């Protein structure tokens, strides 16, 4: 795996976690 794949995967995981948090805990983003 190249560094670009690792970076892309990390970004995708962070975005997914952010979206889940926004759905479950909208008060955190108010």
Strand and helix layout:
Elements: H1 3-24
Structural overview:
This protein has 30 residues and is mostly helical. The chain has one domain (1-29). Helices cover 73% and strands 0% of the residues. The protein is built from one helix and no strands. The N and C termini lie far apart (38 Å). 0% of the residues are buried.
Tally of contiguous helical segments:
1
Structural class: mainly alpha
Report the mean per-residue pLDDT as an integer: 91
> How many domains?
1
How many β-strand stretches? 0
Beta-strand percentage? under 5%
Calculate the terminal CA-CA distance, rounded to whole Å: 38 Å
Order of helices and strands: H
Poorly predicted runs of 5 or more residues: none
Shape designation: rod-shaped
Gyration radius, in Å: 12 Å
Helix content: over 70%
Major β-sheet, in short? none
List keywords for this structure.
0% strand, 73% helix, 30 residues, single chain, mainly alpha
């Amino acid at each position: 795996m190249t560094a670009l794949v690792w970076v892309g995967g990390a970004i995708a995981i962070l975005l997914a976690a952010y979206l889940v948090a926004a759905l479950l805990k909208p008060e955190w983003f108010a």
